[in-house]
Specification:
With 445 residues, the protein is α/β, with parallel strands linked by helices. The chain folds into 2 domains: 219 residues, 3-Layer(aba) Sandwich (Rossmann fold), CATH 3.40.50.720; 189 residues, 3-Layer(aba) Sandwich (Rossmann fold). Helices cover 37% and strands 15% of the residues. Strands 3-2-1-4-5-6 form a 6-stranded parallel sheet, sandwiched between helices. The protein has a 5-stranded parallel sheet with strand order 10-9-13-14-15, covered by helices on one side. A two-stranded parallel ribbon has the order 7-8. Helix 8 packs across helix 10 and helix 11 crosses helix 12. It is elongated, with a radius of gyration of 24 Å. Keywords: NAD, Oxidoreductase. Pfam families: UDPG_MGDP_dh, UDPG_MGDP_dh_C, UDPG_MGDP_dh_N. GO terms for molecular function: NAD binding; oxidoreductase activity, acting on the CH-CH group of donors, NAD or NADP as acceptor; oxidoreductase activity, acting on the CH-OH group of donors, NAD or NADP as acceptor. Belongs to the UDP-glucose/GDP-mannose dehydrogenase family.
Amino acid sequence: MAECGATAEGLALEAARFIARVEDRDLTVCVLGLGYVGLPLALDLARAGFAVVGCDSSPAVLASLAARRSPLPHIADAALEALWPRFAAAAPVAGRAPPADVYLICVPTPLSPSGAPDMGAVIEAAELVGPALTRGALVALESTVYPGATAEVLRPRLEQLSGLRAGRDFALAHAPERQNPGGASVEQSRRRLVGADSHAEREMALGLYRTFAEPAAVDSLATAEAAKLSENVFRLVNIALANELAATFRGMGLDPWAVARAAATKPFGFMPFAAGPGVGGHCIPVDPVYLTWRAEGMGLNLPLVDAARDIVGRRPGEVCAEVLAALPPRADGGRGRILVVGAAYKRNVGDARHSPAVEIIEILSEAGCETAYCDPFVPQLEAGGRMLSAAPVDEALARDWDAVVIVTDHDRVDHAAFLRAAPLVFDTRNVLAGVAGGSARVVQV
């Protein structure tokens, strides 16, 4: 791997050389974090013809990739075939990332136990990249962060550990991830955003991202950071509105899904969002907090965002309240045997982070119900301090339940079959609309 030789005069001349090397595929790219964001990114880069080094701290992920198996349930082993000729996975060695010309940081940015942004993984990545950083390299942060975080948290650590300066000796960019796990459209994740604080840094980042995506440029790191948060705050607020409207229309005796379909016939000024049992994953429950936390630190408030978080946060409890109110008394004095169908936060993925299914299981269990779950994508689930194992769908169908609660609507699950498994089926996703068969009473919640 040749080293780019940036001078103190800046990256302007080096940007042209970097882009030429991009066009020749004469660069090694290191992707830090091989999860839901990093592994698809590594695939994109390998397909584009780059040598890719994947760096991850998880022995299980590294072992799976060493055996040429996908560590993610929504990515098939066969889909990784594009990786192998140009890909190697490794753990950090001696506190350093592998040598590379480009470092793309794709690590989790969750919330701390106190509910504040947890930048620990970004700091750890900076401590790995800094000692390995060379002149003329590009570092891009894909992890979602609050406005100002790339400049305030990542940049000083990279500069201190490398002895180099961003914007003069190496390029620093923020290219917020837009992965849609389980989504049908690959094109959605190709439309990317790239922000940097200088023209040369933007050109270097754009040169790389154009090889596998359709990037748009913005003129600062902070603008790109704020744009990503805006995207998911928009989703949160509209999901909250969809849930509020659904509850109102049900109270009026209307089918909220039919109302939403009717409104969606308007070709402008309306965008359909689905009501449901709550929100989950690593984006919508987390990203708005990164914005409100930053805003509050600057004396600013977002009451609409706070209200939306409250509305969606109440949904698992509201679902459980309807289930418990509908359960008939049992001769043995118990509250009932409940099967939760779907534990992932969204369809066709195996990610249960912040899934409303977890809280639903916990609330029903605390109320005295005997609970179990089935999900072909989530073999194990931690709920209420216990590690639960998924019941196979055919086994679950063979048992008697007092109620079934459909939380996640995976395509590979025959939800209509559960109409024969219990006298009550609570459908939080409208997946049974128009489905006939069985003797169950379907309750839309």
